[in-house]
Amino acid sequence: MTTFLQLHLLTAYPPSNPNRDDQGRPKQATVGGAPRLRLSSQSIKRALRISPPFQQGLAGHMGQRTKLMANEVRRHLIERGADAETARKTAEEIGKVFGKIEAADKKRPDALHGTTLAFISPDERAFALELADKAFAGEALPTDKDLARTVLRTADGAVDIAMFGRMLADNPGFNREAAVQVSHAITTHRAQSEDDYFTAVDDLKRRDDDAGGAHLGEHSFGSGVYYLYACVNCDLLVENLAGDRDLAARGLRALVQAMATATPSGKQNSHAHRPRAGHIRAEIGSATPRDLTGAFFSPVKGEDLLEASVTALTDMASAIDEAYGPAADRVQIMDVRARQGTLAGLEAFAASALGPQDD
């Protein structure tokens, strides 16, 4: 039976604009007929990947998302002493395993760009460069299918790829199914963005010349309590990491820490938004996963929106359990204002979903 780790977070954001739409305004959604502010799943996963718990805690086990791997191979060969034309042709052949190579840019004829923003693991990067070295030494490159098998892997030590998956359209046999699903975060209550009109003053302008501002601008922001849900297929996570349960446990600890502390960084210099989750509900079990968004289809109200959100979340979890049976075998909660639980305790709880770990 598959073991699932489910995480439900409530986080209060100050006035901020962490995730913007195409017009620079906070992203929004209509839920239950009411306007809400929204943080996209993609922006959240990006924030998780670049957070200290991932970048520092999982150093050496993080992939790179890039269109420029072929260009890295080209530069590597030139540093080894290859001429520009040979380096380019070899890099194109190796780089195409990650996606088709775009036509040469007239402004930058030597640069190589892929058409796919591909997730590449440290092992795959190393294999690509090793193959380039062999080609530089005079060995023939493998044919297309063998080339892919030489460079690509279906499982290795890249935790972020194991968690969030990847798609390689030209080599679908090396796609990876995401072991972690992350929702869009929405405010638990009615919320809309506000517009700010601002001016900036020229320090060298004298008041007797002109008392007005030197710059006029508009800026949008919003605030609210956001609900965020994530579900981890623990068995698939271990499988994607080639059976390394200890590394999977490190990944789960990093995921919990990052989800509690990381945030999309749009307009962060303007707002200094660095919120931490006020309430986290972690669940482990083999029952079919379910999110608790239904708790907020009727927007919560009142003077204390965070407390009202915690109550609605807890009530919905209880109601679903009564109707369908327990959704988890074990539950652990951290609530900051109630002084219940700790983040370290939640990290240990999440890692326990994989069973006992080696010392």
Automatic annotation (TrEMBL):
Residues 12-33 are annotated as: Disordered. This is Type I-E CRISPR-associated protein Cas7/Cse4/CasC.
